[in-house]
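Predict the 3D structure for this chain.
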Amino acid sequence: MSKLPTAMSAVLLKGNGGYDQLEFRADVSLPELAAEEVLIRIGAAAVNNTDINTRTAWYSASVNASADSGWTGAANVFPRIQGADGCGRIVAVGARIDASRIGERVLIEPVFRAPLGWAPYRAIYFGSEWDGAFAEYAKAPSVHAHRVESSLSDIELATFPCSYSAAENMLERAKLGEGETVLITGASGGVGSAALQLARRRGAIVIAVSAKEKAAEMTELGASRVLARETDVLAALGAESVDVVCDVVGGAQFPKLLEVMRRGGRYSVSGAIAGPHVGLDLRTLYLKDLMLTGCTVFDPIVFTNLIGYIERGEIEPLVSSVYPLSSIVEAQQEFQAKRHIGKIVLTV
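Done. Predicted structure below.
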């Protein structure tokens, strides 16, 4: 193994605010490894909503002005290297990790449970409370650096960790089964398009909600029916017409999502891009015996399943565009325009 450099290129998030808070630097120190960690040379990383949400303090200001701005409820520490999606190769290991891991190609599981001793529903988030993949090198607990054997490129593999694990977690929590009907909101985004593929893999019937101009792509991915995002879902589908709702949108349409669910239906949510404050009639919830589940921290089986799906070619990467790491502002601007399908990837 060649000697590691003393400094690396990385994008630092200096604080909450606009694009001016993102600084590309070439003199950032490499992470120091603890005994059970590995160092990964990052090949590619992808952009996610959480990158923008953390930078703009969305987790606090848009939900509860008295809350802090991190995923965990604790204040963010700046500067921070963001990037929840990372693909690369292990180049060094901590004292308690077998050196045979060096050279492995890995995907980084972005929800770190190990540092907190596997406490239920407690985690540290890669790229949020822990420096992430918008850098030449990143460290991770060895247990969260998953070996992957695939002919896909680093760019393609970097599309999977965050969005696909979030989507698989939603479907797993909802126990979506073969032949059931699932309604997926925000279906053209990273999590939504992942959920569409993963739901079809389970043999479900998928109704996708997306921008009208993206209907053809949603059908190609496997949607049986596509509704434009401005469509009244209750009027279009009728009451008690779907078994499961996977929602990343929230907003004003939330009450109608509950109305279209059959009795005993399951609702999973992992985002709120149309607004976090929603109307809930408790009578609908309890009289229909609905189950509402928030989905963030996932069980280990979720990422293990995902690696298996990738290695067996059961899901496909959706790369919308590729930028160098130094062009992160342009990448985030394209991301926020919401005209893409799938993932925007940064090469490192």
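Confidence is low (pLDDT under 50) at residues 62-68.
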